[in-house]
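Reader question, answered in our methods column.
A reader sent in the components of a multi-part assembly and asked whether the whole thing could be modeled at once rather than chain by chain. We filled in our standard form and ran it. Here is what they sent:
COMPLEX SIZE: two components
ENTRIES:
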Amino acid sequence: MNKVSAQVLPASAGKAKRVLPGFSLSLGVSLLFISLVLLLPVTGLIVQTSGMTLAEYWAVITDERVVASYKVTLWAAGIASLINGVVGLLMAWVLVRYEFWGKRFVDALMDLPFALPTAVAGITLAALFAENGWYGQYLARLGIEVAYTPLGIVVAMSFTSLPFVVRTVQPVLEDLAPEDEEAAMSMGASDLTVFRRILFPALWPALMTGVALSFTRSLGEFGAVIFIAGNTPYVSEITSLMIFVRLQEFDYAAASAIASVVLMASLVLLLGINLWQARYLKRLHGR
Amino acid sequence: MSKHRNSSLRVGERPWTKWTLIGIALTLTLLILVIPLVLIFAQALSGGVQTAWDNLTDAYTLHAIGLTLFVAALTVPINLVFGVFLAWLVTRFEFPGRKALITLIDIPFAVSPVVAGLLYLLLYGSNGWLGSWLADYDVQLMFAWPGIVMVTVFVTCPFVARELIPLMQQQGSEEEEAGVILGASGWQLFRRVTLPNIRWALIYGVVLTNARAVGEFGAVSVVAGNIRGQTNTLPLHVELLYQDYNVVGAFVAASLLAGIALLTLLIKSVVEWRQSRQPEPENHQSEILG
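And here is the structure of the entire assembly that came back:
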């Protein structure tokens, strides 16, 4: 609810802080844990890929089938996060602005995609969208095939990352000061105009963050996707699966090379989102 | 018509707009969240209660349940301790590299679980520099339960800290400073002052860690090796049964995991309700009753 204001600290806090005990202990535990759990494992990847020549490395990561998997993954994650941008904004709006029967239930259920194990989400979506499934049979009549096509990947990705947009937009919408909106409305501007000119500009940094988080998560999604994607080479194979395939062929070098590409992409995205959020928060407090 | 519009001062308050939006939202909730959930349990029971029971009490399923609970029981305390220490560090002290540390612990959220599993496999597998050294002492971590625990710790380590940091930052450290002045020891300070303040966020962090630990699939499938009756966790068992065309069995195992997910959501609602009730008790109580 009040996550946005979390950055504000009392002015005197900086100096008074070292009064509290446990600095060395908590620093020691945190650094040890981060080094062992997060950083040390990366050395294995570095050792493995440094055994390859640059030409070998390049050949592996630009292999035709692997490049096809980048394309499918990027496209599907892009479409999925855009869908989530629209659906998530709508859900956040309805949950914040309106009162209706069952609202608390809907609000609680919104986190289901995070709480549900991805493998469970995967077999459930595959069953729903299969040709004779609850949704698939109706879509089949319209000539739409979802299961075992790239469209299935989009469905799985948007399901698993839907809460990101809802949960980033919701607190911002709750904390929005009503003055500008009320002033514009009382001067007779239409709903759409006020939304476009006043509300959307205030919401879009949060919306962008949510979409970016949703995109990042979708790029790495594995469990939910592989059950519904059909995993046809060149058509519906995601990059995470390519790593898995190379591993099963015991081609550790190739798996590492592809993984290093994925890892760098996700770290760049993570850093970008963090910088974006820092800038956006600074601007909020600068006013 | 225009008179009606002027009477509402906020966007989307006209009944037609409002109920259309609510209608779309409820339809989407039904299609995206409710029906999939119903399908899980419907499929599990599609062969009758007896079949579901036989699948549930199958020796391999029981073993998978046991292993999954075992992994969670090891993972959650490790990440609980780490999360509390890290949150204490970054919210109570100012030091160079503090922001970098906060960004670092988000890495598991951004990294694909398959990549996470691979990182561990490359380091601790028999080809890895650390793994080959350990192999000399007959220590095998990968394709065995320690590997599953290790990647699960990696994947779930941000949850507790992520729940605690915003809350502890917002609460500030005045109460704890007062405690120090009154002569409290570090442990007393934590137990008597900090813990009561962060209790609910901590519970939710633990619940999230547990939910993810129980359900992790991608990272675990890389390091587990899917040895039935040995390294098969519940999510891996779901996949195995599904690929064996035992759809009922897969959904029986899936419904156990879905049950844990629902419990997680329930605890989250309770925790949020308790948290929002703390400052202004009367206000929110009536909201619940209403």
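What stands out: The radius of gyration of chain A is 23 Å. Residues 252-286 of chain A form the longest helix (35 residues).
Send us your own complexes using the same form.
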